[in-house]
Amino acid sequence: MKNKKQHKNSSKTIDTLLIENRKFKPKDSFKKQANVRNADIYKTARKNPVKFWEKMASELVWKKKWEKGLIWKAPDARWFDGGKLNVTESCLDQHITNGNRNKAALIWEGEPGDKRTFTYYDIYRDVNKFANALKSLGVKKGDRVAIYLPMIPEIMISMLACARIGAIHSVVFGGFSPESLKDRINDSQVKLLITADGGYRKGQVIPLKHDADVALADCPSIEHVVVVNRGGFLLRFKEGRDHWYHELLEKADSFCKPTYMDSEDPLFILYTSGTTGKPKGIMHTCGGYLTGVYATTKYVFDLKNDDVFWCTADCGWVTGHSYIVYGPMANGATQVMYEGTPNYPDKNRFWKIVEEHGVSVFYTAPTAIRTFMYWGREYPDGCDLSSLRLLGTVGEPINPEAWIWYNEVIGHKNCPIVDTWWQTETGHILITPLPGLTTTKPGSATFAFPGIEAAILDENGNEIKNGGGFLAIKTPWPGMLRGIWGDRERYVETYWTKWKDIYFPGDGAKIDSEKYLWILGRVDDVINISGHRISTMEVESALVEHESVTEAAVVGSPHKIKGECMVAFVTTLKSKKSESELAKILTDFVSHKIGAIARPEKIIFTPDLPKTRSGKIMRRLLKDIASGKVLGDTTTLADPNVLSKIKSKYED
Ligand code: WTA
Ligand 1: which atom is nearest the Cα of residue 317? Predict the structure, then answer.
């Protein structure tokens, strides 16, 4: 029954999306003070996008100016070619001399309630020291460093310390399992790992170092491990390989000369789910990426010197890279960082943080907003949220009901909402309102950012002027991915073969009569669970690795809070265990293989899966079942009876 209800809800959402015509104009008081007040910015940028981005780049610190704004030979872009820089000079050094030296850069709260504040000078000094420490452990320009940390200040310091010496960081979300960490380390041959004794989540300690040790049993490229002492948790130390972060810092010099990089040298790799079982190492470079995140932070979040910005993402995802570390730091922002969950110790934790630190710009995911809605408005209502002046969302489509709730209950109808569309691959926001200019419609990410050309195309690349199709980005942008680590073919195949020389993000979208863009979600085997991308194929491969499973098919299904969830259809060997016992074993197994975020919501045991005569599993039909939809074309099924059995089992 639950599924039927979910379906009703999801179709209601889509219906509402279709008829959504409420409009919200920015208030005069906001417009007057906005960083962008003149709509000509769109025209100017369209006329000469490269010039627009060059102007943005010129606001950053360069060691040597670029010779050419853009060299584009699809699918390869070189932005600010010939330029030299070290991104930490824009994020840190400039603030030491421009009046921001003693400004709070980071106001941090641990989940148990411990607090630390870092000025720009504090971060600058620790980054320099840690950069020297990394050097002393043999890390050189171009080497890969993995970061497996909780949301503590050291995650930002570690990323910037890598950037200081030209090492390529690869942050692995702390919620990923040892197996996932191992795969990511081995894929890019990581030399050094930075982790912590543990971190707090939901009142529990996540034993990161212990998990890292499990992974490292099988990571021959790792030479050293640096361990941050988060909470004095017990751990095992491997002499010679493991080092305490604080001891390294004590010994290190407080200045590390930045390593100057070519604009196109790599800055980081970040793994994300693709349509096959293997995650892709998305590569980003220095000059273009920094320009993109700097410009979007400044214009989309409208940051001012006295703002307090809070992006609730984890640095393990791209949102944390772009809108906690690089974008806000390049803008000299004051930000809040929080280690734990929104309901610890109580469901008002986020709002208490907003109240206590006077957060003015708040950026979170629709799944969080839906959770807050579900918990009830008494939690935000009990806190003073009057410091808020701008709200943002990212990660998945926001349903208009959640948008309206966000506007009324959190923003008190006083804050513009920026619904920002982008991806790990795009590096920075590409589709978004500009808060002082754009009239918003709940559920629409509105228009492409200046300098970006987005369109809705059909399968053949014809532009759709009013209606649904695939989202496409028609021209290069500075923060675009430059490839997938070690897999050129997959890069070309995934993003650049659907249409000629046009980027295919993998999202379905529609455009309305007023040219507003509405992102509808993934069109491939990637699903968005609570704003996190998980590949159904990755979960299938994990399931079939279990000894009892013979075949598995995993599909997405609508979910009231998470947006989407995963339903697994599996066939198993004969077992003495009950279905519920087996379901628990398999969910734990997936969690162990990938991480808790990849746990299927529901496992359906079936003697057979629907297949074509050639033996291909028809996931499309399973998806129809899991979404409560009318079944699509079943004529190519080898055995149509299979389907009705699965369907009745699912609906049980
Ligand atoms: C989805 C997160 C609708 C989309 C920054 C995209 C969105 C995927 C939005 C990227 C939005 C992100 N509205 N859908 N405002 N923002 N998405 O790589 O499907 O974790 O392709 O990057 O999230 O997820 P990723």
Answer: 20
- Expressed in angstroms and rounded, the spacing between residue 210 Cα and the centre of ligand 1 is 32
Q: Which of 417, 518, 524, 528 to mutate to test the pocket of ligand 1 (most atoms within 8 A of CB)?
A: 528
pLDDT digit string, tens, across residues 34-68:
999 999 999 999 999 999 999 999 999 999 999 99
Q: Is the pTM of this model over 0.90?
A: yes
- What is residue 320's DSSP assignment? H
Q: Identify the H or E element spanning 208.
A: helix 208-216
User: Mean per-residue pLDDT for 329-335?
Assistant: 98
Tens digits of per-residue pLDDT, 218-272? 999 999 999 999 999 988 999 999 999 999 999 999 999 999 999 999 999 999 9
Cα distances from 434 to residues 300, 307, 438, 511, 578, in angstroms, run 5, 17, 5, 18, 55
Residue type, 325: V
Distance CA 85, CA 212 (A): 33
Q: Which residue type does 135 have? A: K
Distance CA 115, CA 457 (A): 49
Distance CA 52, CA 407 (A): 32
Q: What is the end-to-end Cα distance of the chain in Å, rounded?
A: 7
Q: Whose CA is nearest to atom 14 of ligand 1?
A: 396
Gap between the Cα atoms of 301 and 298, Å rounded: 6
**Where does ligand 1 bind, in terms of residues with CB under 6 Å?**
272, 317-319, 394-397, 419-424, 445, 505-507, 519, 521-522, 528, 533
Q: 243: CA distance to ligand 1 center in Å?
A: 37
Q: How far is CA 215 from CA 56, 177, 268, 380, 486, in A?
A: 42, 9, 21, 41, 21
Backbone angles phi, psi at 423, to 5 degrees: -145, 165
DSSP secondary structure string for all residues of 584-619: HHHHHHHHHHTBGGG--SEEEE-S---BBTT--B-H
Please state, in angstroms and as integers, the Cα–Cα distance from residue 108 to each residue in 114, 351, 357, 386, following that order: 8, 15, 10, 21
Domains and CATH numbers, the chain: 28-452 (3.40.50.12780)
> Is the per-residue pLDDT at 276 higher than 80?
no
Does residue 478 have a cis peptide bond before it, meaning omega lies within 30 degrees of 0?
Answer: no
Q: Are 465 and 487 in contact (CB under 8 A)?
A: no
Between the alpha carbon of residue 386 and those of residues 180, 354, 381, 413, 651, the distances in Å are 42, 9, 11, 11, 46
Residue ranges of the alpha helices (H) in 427-497?
Answer: 488-496
Residues present in the chain in total: 652
Tell me the residue type at 241: R
- 342 near 310, Cβ under 8 Å? no
* Backbone angles phi and psi of 214, in degrees to 5: -60, -45
Which of these, 407, 597, 440, 437, lies nearest to 514 by C-alpha position?
440
| Spacing, Cα 314 to ligand 1 middle (Å) | 15
- Ligand 1 midpoint to CA 329 (Å): 23
Distance CA 157, CA 119 (A): 12
Burial class (CB in 10 A: 0-12, 13-18, 19+), 521: middle
The residues, ordered by sequence, that sit 6+ positions from 359 with a Cβ below 8 Å of its Cβ are 308, 309, 310, 336, 353, 387, 388
Mutation choice for ligand 1 from 20, 296, 524, 533, CB with most ligand atoms inside 8 A: 533
Atom of ligand 1 nearest to the CA of 432: 15
